């Protein structure tokens, strides 16, 4: 099983024999993002290998981090089971940079940890004093060559078509400069998040067998530019929800999704525009038997509630103002502070229940799936998403799906044509 991909906030180590290197990676992530996760028992390509985990090994990992990182941190070190293999998960945070590992300061660049020069270390002290910019305008550590020309060109066409930008695409450097996305000639975080060849945004997508986060049927994780991930998230939901067929006399049948796709896309776009990029968690899509949740690692503005924005009385508070502005130019964000209202309008027009969940570290938009056995809205013929059928077929043919899970899928989607086994 491939668990994921290393990033600026996520590091894998094959065994605890690499604890010394892990200390460096933790300090580097803290200096760049303030929080992160590290796993022992996973190879750097994301392959889960597992390892022997004992009380003493957990204690040794904790001691290595607390004794060799200054200022001192107090990470959470725990045993976890991934793909039926024991691993160690380390979650850490710290708000007193710069952090030193074995007496030296490091910074995270992509999935590597690099030692800070004296000049770079001085920049950290300035940032600590509030003299440098916020995350979205901060330097990314990348170069112009890390920007995808085709992605940037496609963005400019959308911005031109929207009427919000008049100048046309010329070359990467000129356009990034016009959009004010360069820092000393190099792209800042917004530029890489939107147009990077590899990107710094992530999304984790999963389908669970029931209405609780226990047994999953499918899981996927992607990294890339924001719009590519929004497209991937929308496609994942499209393929794994039910569609009803409406016959209105037209030559071609009309398929209606159980939740409005426009509302889904709005929730995905907002989850990146308002994300707290210094939180190590990824954006998530969780599809349950009774609902779909889109999670954004970023707390809701203090003193405000989702209904305030739906009613139009909440003033937009942009966590990432430059990122939001860039998404506004291309009309991915229609206007500031109206995302929740659009979700509400789309859901109410489709007769779909929706809700919001405010957590300590994040915010979720919830779309409740109609009960096809008890709600008239789904009484029409239901069209099966081919992706779901293919996934279940693979489970059946490989013997990886427990019988209870197979029966559950048959009950939920009785119209599927099941393969002969």
Biggest pleated sheet: 6 strands, mixed
CATH architecture of the largest domain: 2-Layer Sandwich
Which CATH class of the largest domain? Alpha Beta
Query: What general form does the structure show?
Result: globular
Query: Helix count, per DSSP?
Result: 13
Query: In total, how many domains does the architecture comprise?
Result: 4
- Please bin the fraction of helical residues: 25-40%
E-strand count: 19
Low-confidence stretches: 373-421
Give the amount of beta strand, in percent: 15-25%
Q: What is the arithmetic mean of pLDDT?
A: 83
Cα(first) to Cα(last) distance is 24 Å
Based on secondary structure, the structural category is alpha+beta
* Widest β-sheet, arrangement of strands: 12-11-15-16-18-17
Could you tell me the CATH topology label of the largest domain. Answer: Heat Shock Protein 90
Cα-based radius of gyration, to the nearest Å: 23 Å
Characterize the quaternary organization of these chains. Answer: single chain
């Amino acid at each position: 099983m491939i668990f994921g991909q290393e990033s600026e906030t996520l590091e894998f180590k094959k065994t605890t024999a690499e604890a010394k290197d892990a200390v460096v990676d933790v300090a580097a992530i803290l200096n760049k993002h303030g929080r992160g996760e590290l796993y022992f028992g996973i190879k750097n390509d994301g392959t889960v290998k597992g390892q022997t985990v004992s009380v003493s090994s957990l204690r040794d990992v904790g001691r290595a981090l607390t004794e060799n990182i200054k200022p001192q941190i107090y990470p959470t070190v725990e045993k976890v089971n991934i793909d039926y293999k024991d691993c160690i998960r380390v979650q850490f945070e710290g708000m007193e940079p710069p952090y030193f590992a074995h007496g030296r300061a490091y910074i995270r660049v992509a999935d590597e940890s690099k030692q800070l020069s004296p000049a770079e270390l001085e920049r950290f002290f300035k940032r600590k004093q509030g003299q440098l910019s916020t995350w979205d305008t901060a330097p990314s550590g990348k170069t112009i060559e890390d920007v995808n020309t085709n992605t940037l060109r496609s963005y400019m066409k959308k911005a031109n078509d929207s009427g919000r930008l008049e100048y046309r695409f010329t070359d990467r450097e000129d356009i990034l400069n016009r959009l004010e996305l360069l820092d000393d000639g190099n792209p800042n975080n917004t530029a890489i998040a939107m147009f990077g060849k590899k990107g710094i945004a992530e999304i984790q997508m999963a389908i669970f067998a029931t209405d609780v986060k226990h047994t999953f049927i499918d899981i996927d994780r992607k990294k890339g530019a924001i719009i590519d991930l929004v497209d991937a998230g929308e496609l994942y939901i499209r393929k794994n929800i039910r569609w009803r067929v409406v016959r209105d006399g037209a030559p071609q049948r009309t398929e209606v999704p159980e939740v409005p796709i426009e509302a889904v896309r709005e929730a995905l776009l907002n989850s990146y525009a308002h994300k707290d990029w210094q939180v190590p968690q990824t954006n998530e899509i969780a599809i349950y038997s009774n609902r779909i949740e889109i999670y954004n690692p970023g707390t809701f503005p203090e003193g405000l509630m989702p209904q305030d924005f739906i009613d139009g009385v909440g003033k937009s508070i942009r966590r990432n103002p430059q990122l939001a502005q860039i998404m506004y130019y291309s009309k991915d964000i229609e206007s500031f502070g109206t995302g929740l209202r659009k979700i509400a309008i789309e859901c109410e027009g489709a007769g779909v229940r929706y809700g919001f969940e405010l957590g300590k570290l994040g915010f979720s938009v919830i779309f409740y799936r109609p009960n096809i056995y008890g709600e008239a809205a789904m009484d029409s013929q239901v069209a099966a998403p081919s992706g779901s059928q293919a996934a279940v077929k693979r489970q059946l043919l490989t013997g990886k799906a427990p019988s209870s899970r197979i029966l559950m899928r048959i009950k939920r989607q009785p119209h599927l044509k099941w393969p002969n086994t």
